[in-house]
Structure formats: structure tokens, C-alpha cells
Amino acid sequence: MSTRRTFLLATSGLALSSVAPRLLAQPRFDKSPFTLGVASGYPQPDGIVLWTRLAPDALNGGGMPDAAIDVTWEITDSESFRNVVRKGVERATPELAHSIHAEISGLQPARVYWYRFHVGGATSAVGRFRTAPATGAASDKLRFALASCQQYEQGYFSAYRHMAREDLDLVIHVGDYIYEASWGSNRVRSHGVGEPMNLTEYRNRYALYKSDADLQAAHAAFAWLVTWDDHEVDNDYANDRSQDLDPPDEFLRRRAAAYQAYYEHMPLPAWARPRGPDARIYTQAGFGQLARVFVLDDRQYRSHQVCPRPGRGGSTVVKDADCPERRSPDLTLLGAEQERWLHDALDKSTARWNIIAQQTLMAKQTRITGGEQGYWTDGWDGYPQARERLLGHIAARKVSNPIVLGGDVHNAIVADLKVDFDDTKSPVIATEFVGTSITSQGPNQKITEAARQNNPHLKFSNGTQRGYTAFDVTPAQCNARIRTLSRVTDPQATVSTLASFTVAHGKAGAQPDSA
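^ thats the sequence. predicted structure below, dont judge the formating
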């Protein structure tokens, strides 16, 4: 580890201790320690990651003693828990905020299981998950939901209540699980404090979000795959640069705290555990012969955004004439190592459908500013050569049925992806679905309609409604239902399907379903 990284570990308070905490053998709690619910993630044909965190006083640091506590978990093949098929003990330590990441093996593929935790006479809520199909199995379906962007103050998490009632195998969350800052209008809830800067403050922010009953219901109902975007740390950050141009070492200490809190509150496997400001979370997950999901990280390794406003980092909208460096081939959104890994993994995939889960809109979205074309620098439009490298590779290697998932822009978008968006004859080589936000306020419809007119490869765009997208993947097709709420500021909001699109096997490009 570099001297700089060692320094950051030490000064952030996140250095790994060689001294084991004392063990509290028989804890007793005045109230349930399972206030943040349960979760599962990263399903394998024979296993799963189970998560919970002991936090009887969740919004005030957790309320746990400075001691390790053994937590029992059990898995059953029936909701009644009559037949426990796996059981074990995991140690919750103060070092990880008494969170549990139990990595279970020995299960059967493509099976539904139920699980729960016990500690000190307390029992958690029951969770449910489905293991992945066996490697090489001819699976006939995969059902999952796409979620992102859940600003706690701007609405209720009613979308998750409705999602939990769907018949799904998986949830894929592509970032902005928390928001570090308050913004927007007509807020219905409050963070109660300012931006988190240290580990305790990030832990409290996650605890606030995860105390929501509807979010807990969706975690308990399905296994999740997750990645982060910017608001898990700081708006528009890029690698070691914050939007406020904080000194890099100072910002990396903040990033280290944010990354650890993220790990502590997600059903992530041990290999994703951060070391200071570094954490590899990009990965892939297989679902038999039917599908392979590639989960990317476009924040940690990206080049700094080009042509920022004076005295600022982060995004802006630029014109080509004013910012020729936008087209530099040296710019990367994924980093050279992750980019090579993705190309290699796509080459090796034998899945019928290849699903790339990443954070933002990949399709080009020309904006008209001052009568000229402009481009937003925080998304793929700020890194057009990196986008061309990825889409060019997909086209050249004839990757089977590529589907790109995105979030970030608070706008439900369906798009055709091309290697060259400026060439009307350039073939469609992949299909993109960007989910609207769970709660975060989006652009008005006038803006989205203007974007559609200027970008004919955008086949659908709606930024005024909140919700999620539900997918049904079969060997023959991939269907996407855009599910939106009646009103995000109503905790009892209803849900309906705003639009539905289908991609046929072997033919890139989504087609609208008839009403």
C-alpha cells in the first residue's frame, strides 16, 4: 500500500486494528437491535450474502457497546421455518458498526429460501431470496427491478412498497442510495442535519434512509446487486476531486468514510470491503445461460470532468468549440483497468442476454444552449471517446443482446445505442433503459421533449414521474415496464405502468408495446 494511502487510512480512523474487541457473550437489549431490517445480495447458484446491522439507537450512532457480539442466522426452505437447511454464527464488531455480511454456501440453485437473525433474545424480520440458476442451466426467465436516486426529503419510498409486491428474482440499484445534501422544492421529510463529513455522520445518514419501512420491505423481499454514484459521497465528485475542489487528501478521507458506511449498510461480500478510500465494487453475476449482469463503477476511477466552471469541480454544459478537450481519447469514465476487465468479461460471456448495470445515461443527449449544441460533462457525453470504445467493442465482438441500464438523471429514458450517434446510418447495436428516480425531482417535460426532438435515438423520455422499472427476461425477449407513482409526496401513492417496451432476441432496439 502506498505511503499516501497508509496515511489516509490512519488519519481517517479506518485503519484495520490487530486487536480483537472484547466479546459480549450474552447481550440483552431494551428494544430490538434489528431496527434497520435485513437484506440479501449477490446470489450465486449455491449461495448468498445475508446482511443486517445491530442498531437499537440507529439514528444516534447505533447505540451498541464497544464490544463484539455473536449473531445467529438461519435459512429455511419454507416460510414457516420448519426445516432449517443452513445455520451459523457471524460476529458483529464495532469496527463495522455491528453489521453482518454472512456469506452462505451449500444451497440449491434456482430455489427460494427464507432467513432471519437472532441475538440476545431478539429475532429479526424474515427475509426472502432466490438463488441463481446453475451455471449453464437453460433458465426460462429472470425478473428484476431497476432502482436509483432516492432523495429522502423529496418524497416517500412508496415505490419500494409496490416493488416488494412484484414477482421478482432480483433488484439492481445503480446509485444515489442516499443523498449527502438537501436540495429541491416541496420537501416532505428532513435529514435533520447538514452534510455528512465523517464516518459517524455517514452511518447516521444511512440509518435514516434504511429506517424507512418500504425500503426495508424491498430489501427483505429480494436479493440485491448494488453500485454507487456520486451522492453516496459528494455531488459530482470524480475520482479524488470534489465539486468544491477540496484538497485531495481531505476529500479522500471523506470518501473513505463514505465508502465504509456504504459497505456497512449493503449486502456486499467481503471482497468489496473498502481499504480507506479504495473499494472495488464492479463485478459480474451469472443467471444460467439466460443472462449475465455486469455491475460497473463510474465514479471512483473516472477522469476529472473537463472544462469546469471557474473555481469549481464537477459538471457543466459545454459547447464543442469552447471545450475541444471533451473529445480527448485519454478521458475515461471507468478507468483503464475496469474498462479492460469489462471488455474481457463481455468477450467471455456465453449468456443470451448481457446486461450492463451502470450509473447514468449512456446515449448521446445533445442539449441546445444559446442556439448551439451543448453537452453535459458529468455523464457519458463528457467522455465520448470512452463511450465509443465500449460501444465499438460491443459491436465488433457481436456481444449477444446487450442491454444497458442507467439512472442518475431522474428521467425514464429508452434509447437506441450506436457507435456513431452523428451518423443516421450507424446501426443500433444495443438498447438502453434509464430508470426514473425513486423520489428525486426530475426535469420538466418541456425539457425532456426538447431533448427527444434533438436526439432521435431517444425513443421515450419522461422526467416528471417517480418510480422504478420492472424487467422480464426470457430467451425470446426482454420486456421493460416503467412503473410510476400517482404522487411521490403521498405515502399511500398508487402505482401504474406508464409505458412498456420489448427488445426481441437478436434485434437491438426497444419497441413500444401496444396498449
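The radius of gyration is 22 Å.
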